[in-house]
């Protein structure tokens, strides 16, 4: 099966993973996922494999195959896996779970190589562009930096006590990190580089982005420069695009009749494109597109 230029995948509470043609909206492949709901989707850097994070396992599927079976499974977490991602060369995978751990996996052997204790349910994990540090956010409001070379936590901060950190995003050049929380607030720090890795957070901005809790925040990728944006999606039924220069509001998508469960945003040049997924069917969309997770890669 030839791979489309844009890979669009969704995961739903109906225990399926679906692949779509982005232009036509046609579903061309469905994978049954009977284990649990899928909390997160992520694709490998070479676009060959799709990771589906569930409860409590992670399954890896071949993007270019019609096989309904995973090529490998990663089974060490004991609760919902809420975050999953890959090192830039695809040599290893990381994950974060409500069991309070952050883990690093060997993709070849499907074994856990390292485990870090967060002491609270982990909601979000991102890999710093330097590929040497993981940043995690948990239900108790803690943000921790895990130094992979030192194999320890090198930095810890709490933007709001007892306020869950729902989503983290790092600028492509490692200059900025944003943390979104349960109160609809985004905390922005400038990342100051140390001798080898970044461990210093300089407060830059506090943005009251939404009236409800934020589910996803995402900074624009490298090809958008010199324009830089932050996209946020929240339980107040809005999706917003912010200009990082001054954090002014560029656009608000409203009129959502249903609860937005997740948004994966991609922004091309000066044209902002947002794909938002709803728990219930919106008029004009195929019923099979009802999803709680979405991944778009081009």
UniProtKB/TrEMBL annotation:
<comment type="similarity">
    <text>Belongs to the WD repeat LST8 family.</text>
</comment>
<dbReference type="GO" id="GO:0031932">
    <property type="term" value="C:TORC2 complex"/>
</dbReference>
<feature type="repeat" description="WD">
    <location>
        <begin position="1"/>
        <end position="30"/>
    </location>
</feature>
<dbReference type="InterPro" id="IPR020472">
    <property type="entry name" value="WD40_PAC1"/>
</dbReference>
<dbReference type="InterPro" id="IPR037588">
    <property type="entry name" value="MLST8"/>
</dbReference>
<dbReference type="InterPro" id="IPR036322">
    <property type="entry name" value="WD40_repeat_dom_sf"/>
</dbReference>
<dbReference type="InterPro" id="IPR001680">
    <property type="entry name" value="WD40_rpt"/>
</dbReference>
<protein>
    <recommendedName>
        <fullName>Target of rapamycin complex subunit LST8</fullName>
    </recommendedName>
</protein>
<feature type="repeat" description="WD">
    <location>
        <begin position="207"/>
        <end position="252"/>
    </location>
</feature>
<keyword id="KW-0967">Endosome</keyword>
<keyword id="KW-0853">WD repeat</keyword>
<dbReference type="Pfam" id="PF00400">
    <property type="entry name" value="WD40"/>
</dbReference>
<dbReference type="InterPro" id="IPR015943">
    <property type="entry name" value="WD40/YVTN_repeat-like_dom_sf"/>
</dbReference>
<dbReference type="GO" id="GO:0031929">
    <property type="term" value="P:TOR signaling"/>
</dbReference>
<keyword id="KW-0677">Repeat</keyword>
<dbReference type="GO" id="GO:0005768">
    <property type="term" value="C:endosome"/>
</dbReference>
<feature type="repeat" description="WD">
    <location>
        <begin position="115"/>
        <end position="148"/>
    </location>
</feature>
<comment type="subunit">
    <text>The target of rapamycin complex 1 (TORC1) is composed of at least RAPTOR, LST8 and TOR.</text>
</comment>
<dbReference type="GO" id="GO:0031931">
    <property type="term" value="C:TORC1 complex"/>
</dbReference>
<dbReference type="GO" id="GO:0032956">
    <property type="term" value="P:regulation of actin cytoskeleton organization"/>
</dbReference>
<comment type="function">
    <text>Component of TORC1 complex, which is an essential cell growth regulator that controls plant development. Acts by activating transcription, protein synthesis and ribosome biogenesis, and inhibiting mRNA degradation and autophagy.</text>
</comment>
<dbReference type="InterPro" id="IPR019775">
    <property type="entry name" value="WD40_repeat_CS"/>
</dbReference>
<feature type="repeat" description="WD">
    <location>
        <begin position="74"/>
        <end position="115"/>
    </location>
</feature>
């Amino acid at each position: 099966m030839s791979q489309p230029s844009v890979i669009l995948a969704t995961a739903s509470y109906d225990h399926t993973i679906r692949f779509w043609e982005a232009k036509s909206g046609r579903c061309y492949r469905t994978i049954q996922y009977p284990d649990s709901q899928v909390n997160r989707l992520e694709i490998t850097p070479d676009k060959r494999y799709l990771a589906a994070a569930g409860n409590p396992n992670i399954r890896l599927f071949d993007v270019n195959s019609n096989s309904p079976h995973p090529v490998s499974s990663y089974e060490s977490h004991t609760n919902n896996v809420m975050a999953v991602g890959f090192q830039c060369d695809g040599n290893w995978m990381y994950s974060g779970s409500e069991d309070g751990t952050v883990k690093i996996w060997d993709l070849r052997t499907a074994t856990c190589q390292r485990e870090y204790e967060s002491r609270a349910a982990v909601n979000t994990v991102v890999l710093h562009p330097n590929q040497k540090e993981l940043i995690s956010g948990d239900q108790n409001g803690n943000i921790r930096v895990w130094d992979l070379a030192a194999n320890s936590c090198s930095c810890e901060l709490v933007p709001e006590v007892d306020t869950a950190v729902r989503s983290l995003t790092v600028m492509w050049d490692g200059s900025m990190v944003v943390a979104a929380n349960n109160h609809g607030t985004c905390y922005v720090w400038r990342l100051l580089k140390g001798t080898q890795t970044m461990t210093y957070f300089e407060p830059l901005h506090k943005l009251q982005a939404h009236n409800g809790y934020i589910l996803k925040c995402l900074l624009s990728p490298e090809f958008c420069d010199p324009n830089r944006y932050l996209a946020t999606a929240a339980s107040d039924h809005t999706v917003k695009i912010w200009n990082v220069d001054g954090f002014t509001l560029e656009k608000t998508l409203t009129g959502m009749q249903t609860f937005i469960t997740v948004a994966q945003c991609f922004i091309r040049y000066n044209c902002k494109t947002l794909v938002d997924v709803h728990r219930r069917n919106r008029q004009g969309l195929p019923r099979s597109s009802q999803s709680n997770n979405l991944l778009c890669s081009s």
